[in-house]
Specification:
Largest interface: A-B, 17 and 12 residues
Radius of gyration of chain B: 13 Å
Largest sheet of chain B: 7 strands, antiparallel
Structural class of chain B: alpha+beta
Shape of chain A: globular
Number of domains of chain B: 1
Distance between the termini of chain A: 41 Å
Oligomer: heterodimer
Radius of gyration of chain A: 21 Å
Order of helices and strands of chain B: HEEEHEEEEEHEHEH
CATH topology of the largest domain in chain A: Gyrase A, domain 2
CATH architecture of chain B: Beta Barrel
CATH class of the largest domain in chain A: Alpha Beta
CATH topology of chain B: OB fold (Dihydrolipoamide Acetyltransferase, E2P)
Helix content of chain A: 10-25%
Number of strands of chain B: 10
């Protein structure tokens, strides 16, 4: 049975093209992916991301428990701060990537990918052991809206947001348009923005209110199609494409989110530490095509006539017009930035250059 | 008769219109709308021959790549080169200015038997 968010009727009324995504009936585009993408880069966009999972973790040992399942130092996470991390198995392969928010003393919110919520919760239960901790999957009770773009802050201010100076990767209880919710300054677009978490019953009211109040800032509803091109330009990984149970944090180029000095043990630590010291056999690279062909998920990457890897995400970058991709290749010293490789597209090899990620300049963040 | 009244459509959303001794081939507005923003188009060369149902071109939107099939067999006699450089024009017009190729064919009669009028094609979609 395909699930629907509490905003499904709104999407249909807006004439959105709907698709099945991770078991959810979701809007892929309302008007045009390119137009929606540019709206977020230039003004502000509204995303229904209620398919994402929300799991509350609390109890006497909550910090210790989370610290034992992710590479980040959860014991150093401050109140109202958030941290991006991965959920590795013993062999370092990834079950999911997450954002963990500290809501209070021994109280956390974990945001999971829609397709992974059940696996994550299972994994939490397996690893709960003797920790005194409650794992409360509230995904079905909460809606999540993302307001993203350079004018997101103007819109939030207009809607009565109290914390103008809220830092990136923090979360605060707030009141927006009279609704009590959690506002975090995070997103998946490479732009400044907010994600608002609240009970399902407010979803329709807030959706309409945000679109109405955002009109003067050029707001548009944004579908999953533009969400994908926005995150790829920003060099952000998509679980299922760029991350899975066969990739580790180090191979994925996420070593920055793996503290080397962490004392506590966690699943996969020995593999991750070994890879940090001795290197990895495959690595994630950014690619830019040198012709008009578009690299797509699953296309093979060649170097000197030999297959060296596979594209995991690719698209036309609506901001630059270039055709960009991420993929995994053998970790050879000659395969580095500016190296020209080839991608097999429709049985022909096409040149692509290895480039640094992100593919667009990072915006000023607060 | 208008372009739409003259054309015959395939199940896979290609159209063919008789144009003197030649046949103009393209994609229906429904297909273009389903694809979304068109960002890439690869057309064959003049002189290439294809059977009915064979892939003769490739099209990509932001979201996906698709093949385009010959609604009738024939030989390519003209290619809409302008579209290859600006495939986004297909989102505005996939008929008069947005045709893909013109072909010569001597099997129109038999190959067009399973093609539909635009009205029947639209009805089939609903």
């Amino acid at each position: 049975m395909v699930k629907q968010t509490y905003l499904c009727n709104k999407h249909i009324a807006l004439n959105a093209k709907m698709v099945d995504f991770a078991g959810w009936y979701m809007p892929v585009q309302y008007t045009s992916i390119i137009e929606e993408h540019k709206t977020v880069r230039e003004n502000v966009g509204l995303f229904d991301v209620s398919h994402m999972g929300e799991v509350f973790v609390f109890g006497k040992d909550a910090t210790q428990f989370l610290n034992s399942i992710v590479p980040q130092n959860i014991d150093k996470l401050e109140y109202e701060k958030a941290v991006y991390c991965q959920l590795p198995k013993e062999n370092g392969g990834l079950i999911d990537d997450l954002i963990i928010y500290k809501l209070g003393i021994e109280s956390y919110l974990v945001i999971c990918n829609a397709s992974r919520v059940e696996d994550d919760v299972n994994w939490f239960s397996i690893n709960k052991k003797d920790y005194d901790v409650s794992i409360d999957n509230q995904s079905h009770n909460y809606s999540l809206l993302a307001i993203q773009g350079p004018k997101a802050i103007d819109l939030m201010r207009k809607m009565g947001y109290q914390y103008e100076n809220q830092k990136s990767f923090t979360i605060k209880p707030a009141v927006i348009e009279g609704i009590k919710l959690l506002a975090s300054r995070t997103g998946y677009t490479g732009e400044d923005g907010f994600e608002l978490l609240f009970e399902n019953k407010y979803a329709q009211y807030l959706w309409d209110k945000i679109l109405e109040q955002g009109e003067e800032f050029g707001i548009k509803p944004i579908g999953l199609g533009a969400r994908d091109t926005l995150r790829l330009e920003a060099g952000l990984h998509l679980y299922g494409n760029d991350l899975d149970e066969n990739t580790t944090s180090v191979e994925a180029g996420l070593s920055w989110s793996v503290p080397k000095d962490k004392q506590a043990d966690y699943n996969g630590k020995s593999v991750i530490m070994e890879q940090l010291s001795n290197g990895v056999s495959k690595k994630l690279i950014g690619l830019e095509m040198l012709d008009r062909n578009i690299p797509r998920h699953g296309y093979d990457i060649y170097y000197n006539g030999e297959k060296i890897g596979t594209v995991t995400s690719g698209c036309v970058s609506p901001s630059t017009g270039k055709n960009i991709a991420m993929g995994y290749v053998k970790n050879l010293p000659e395969i580095c930035t500016d190296t020209t490789v080839q991608i097999m597209i429709r049985e022909k090899l096409h040149d692509a250059k290895i480039v640094k990620r992100p593919f667009i300049q990072k915006r000023n963040r607060v | 008769m208008s372009f739409k009244e003259e054309m015959l459509c395939s199940n896979s959303h290609e159209y063919v219109v008789k144009d003197g001794n030649a046949y103009t081939i393209g994609l229906t507005d429904y297909a273009i709308e389903q694809l979304g923003d068109i960002v890439f188009l690869e057309l064959p060369s003049v002189g290439d021959s294809f059977g009915k149902g064979e892939t003769f071109a490739n099209i990509e939107s932001v979201k996906a790549a698709s093949e385009i099939y010959m609604p009738i067999a024939g030989e390519i006699i003209e290619v809409n080169e302008e579209l290859v450089d600006a495939p986004e024009k297909l989102n505005e017009d996939c008929y008069e200015g947005g045709w893909l190729v013109k072909i010569s064919s001597n099997s129109y009669q038999q190959d067009s038997e399973d093609l539909m009028t635009y009205d029947d094609y639209k009805a089939e979609l609903e």
